[in-house]
What does this fold into?
Amino acid sequence: MTDWQHGFYKLSLAKRQQIVAHQFELTGNQQELLQRQVDGVNEQMVENYLTSFHLPEGIAVNLLVNQQKYVVPMVVEEPSVVAAASNGAKLVAKNGGFKVTSNKSMMIGQVVITDLKDVDETVHWLQQETIKILQVANQAKPSMQQRGGGATKLKIRTLKKDWLAIEISVDTGEAMGANGVNTMCEAVGHWLTDHGFNVLTAILSNFATQSLQTVTCAIKVIDLATDMMTGEQVAKKITQLSELAQVDPYRATTHNKGIMNGIDAAVIASGNDWRAIESGAHAYAAIDGAYKGLSTWQVENGYLNGTMTLPLSLGIVGGSIDIVPLVEVNQRMMAIESAVQLAQVIISVGLAQNLAALKALATNGIQAGHMELQYRSLAVAIGASESEVEQVVKQLKGIKHVDRNTATAVLNQLRKDKNNGRN
Ligand code: NDP
It folds into this structure.
């Protein structure tokens, strides 16, 4: 560690920015950017705060879930994601929309005890102490029970021959509940330590298998037709792509990345913890031992049927939700009234995104739809001004092989022509 990092966390924001500017020889413009993007709320949220990193927010439209219409704010840096979600949603809305069923949202907290002399005897004792253990958990966070939730069930699982997991199911109400569940687990952990057990860890699990959402949709095969392909041809390719994601983890990973494009973007906009959702989704993708596509698509009686189940433990209160002002605006746009409703909408965005990606793959390929937005990003990346972007994109569309060099040449030529025109 170099000297300037020592005690960095104790410094004022202005001093931190000053030191960073000096250490990394930032230009005046770069220093000004750090200062311009400072946000008083964000400053309270992370340690060693330097500035705020902005991401674009767009809204996906056309979503119909359980007969209710939604618009969904999405925060994402990748071009085409919002457009694809809206397109997929429109196709499904035309066919009756998404149907989502949810099980009651419960979080799972784990307390792991090790080095047990007699596992069977411990299991027996823990079973007898179930009510007491739930009491200890609920006393650690009484507000949950007061709202009608709290710790309700206990499961004991053998992890290896002398290790046990005590798994507490907690109804966290309208919050995701990570902090509440952690508080409960730690209280149970201390109680077990007092009873002579070695507690290895006491923390929630993000594998939220008691917060499962299942989304389905059915699209008339004829609605999938394009200028070049019949609906049957498109549907057949989509089912084959679905099958591919079930048998090949290389394809499954990208299949799921497409789903998470939509889910993460909507989760971020809702102020929830997308790392928690990501880790749970990928664990669920491997639930039977092999990593597979999270969604599946099949053709039956003239319909393409899609389905997906995911653990989605989300909140409409708590964490950064109550802190980030834009989340309140986003909740208002979504007209969300409960955490379960939010999960239902977000899983539908995931399936809409998946449908759009599979349809593109089955027809024109992914790149065709992405090109204009990619050219736009490329134009910005090579330094085109707002007024130049449109012209650069227009010209790039007429070029066969576009890369950074060709784009730069286009921009330079454009500027030269403009200057000549002026002279
Ligand atoms: P909070 O710690 O903010 O707890 C929820 C808050 O909402 C509490 O203050 C609670 O009040 C209040 N609340 C108001 N109304 C309700 C209601 N109807 N139902 C439930 N709570 C209500 O957030 P969470 O416990 O939800 O934790 C989420 C945060 O934890 C996220 O920011 C996440 O990033 C972070 N985290 C995630 C971890 C993980 O996923 N592994 C680990 C650790 C943290 P009261 O206190 O009175 O009950």
In short: The radius of gyration is 26 Å. The chain is about 50% helix and 20% strand. The longest strand covers residues 150-160. Residues 143-144, 147, 172-180, 182, 204, 206, 273, 276, 315, 317-320 surround NDP (CB under 6 Å).
